[in-house]
Amino acid sequence: KFADEDPNLICCLSNNVAFSIDKRMDPANAVVTEFGKDTSEYALGSLKKPMTCHATSRKGQLVIGDSVGSIRLYTGPPGTQRQAGGYHPKTAKTLLQGSPGQAILSVDITADGKFVLATTEDNVMLFPIEYLAEGKSLNGCDARMGKSKPSPLRLSPSPEQLLSIGSKPQVT
Questions:
Q1: What is the spatial distance between Cα 29 and Cα 39, in angstroms, rounded to a whole number?
Q2: Per DSSP, what are the bridge partners of residue 65?
Q3: What is the model's pLDDT at position 7?
Q4: What Rg value do the Cα atoms of the chain yield, rounded?
Q5: Neighbour-count burial of 92, counting CB atoms closer than 10 A to its CB (0-12 exposed, 13-18 middle, 19+ buried)
Q6: What angle do CA 80, 84, 86 make, to 5 degrees?
Q7: CA distances from 97 to 1, 5, 70 (A)
Q8: Which of 35-41's residues contact partners 24+ apart within 8 Å by CB, and which partners?
Q9: DSSP string of 106-147?
Q10: For 55, phi and psi rounded to 5 degrees?
């Protein structure tokens, strides 16, 4: 979504691996990883079920939805270099629970990284991921939320609305 800001760096995802490619480099060596590591070492260990969708914020924070209703928040694509030095970790900082058992069909994060929007077959969920801890404003992509995990604001049709529509609506 923010590719126009750095058109040379591409975030690549497969079923359980996330890494970046720098288009300015020789194609044989374009994968951006820690020195001496292979892309197979960037498996998303916390991702237990198939990934269904993903999104990034302007800062590069990564949000991944899966087939069982879980949403994982990462500081950035695992293994890619941070602007401040070092590399992004392979594990998610925060795990949010959407609708248990229902696949996350689509997910998005606001440009400023303050909210995550996710859809399932039955509803739309909005998660505020910015929170206060010890007087400091933190973000669920950059710091573990722990007990500060929010309950999502859910938008679902009422039984009366379902009756008037005559069928189950598809949320996309």
A1: 11
A2: 53, 71
A3: 63
A4: 17
A5: buried
A6: 45
A7: 24, 31, 5
A8: 37/79, 39/79, 41/79
A9: EEEE-TTSSEEEEE-SS-EEEEE-EEEETTEEEETTTS--GG
A10: -155, 160
Name the residue type at position 107: V
Q: Tokens 């404003």 correspond to what residue?
A: 137
Structure token pair of residue 80? 């890619």
Tokens of 102: 């229902």
Fill in the DSSP letter of residue 32: E
Segment (H or E) for 97: strand 94-97
pLDDT tens, per residue, the chain with 172 residues: 554 555 666 666 666 666 666 667 666 665 655 556 666 666 666 666 778 888 888 888 889 999 999 999 988 766 666 667 776 666 789 999 988 889 999 999 999 999 999 999 888 999 999 999 888 999 999 899 999 999 999 888 788 887 887 777 666 6
Looking at residue 98, what is its pLDDT? 87
Tell whether the torsion through CA atoms of 169, 111, 19 and 96 is positive or negative: negative
Q: Which residue has the tokens 């969708």?
A: 53
